[in-house]
Design brief:
This is Cytochrome P450 94A1. With 87 residues, the chain is mainly alpha-helical. It contains four helices and no strands.
């Protein structure tokens, strides 16, 4: 479990590092994503930012799977929609 947690943290650190580098290369804030806003707002605690990135990764995982389940359930109840998708 420690190895997996470490891998997730390293992945998040890499995302933060790449975003910091991207923001450093731009003269103005062209990125309007949430991570760019957090980094540009003066949050200097990198662990705080990494925790936010991990939270969004994990939250997105649950919502994506739930959305797909509902999608397939609804499609299975409406054969005309299924036929339209297949066409």
């Amino acid at each position: 479990m420690r190895i997996v947690v470490n891998e997730v943290q390293e992945f998040a650190k890499e995302i933060v590092k790449e975003k910091k580098q991207e923001l450093g290369e731009k003269s103005s804030l062209e990125s309007v994503d949430l991570l760019s806003r957090f980094l540009s707002s003066g949050h200097l605690d990198e662990n705080f930012i990494i925790d936010i990135v991990i939270s969004f990764i994990l939250a997105g995982h649950d919502t994506t799977s739930a959305a797909l389940i509902w999608f397939f359930l609804l499609v299975s109840k409406h054969p005309n929609v299924e036929n339209g998708i297949l066409k």
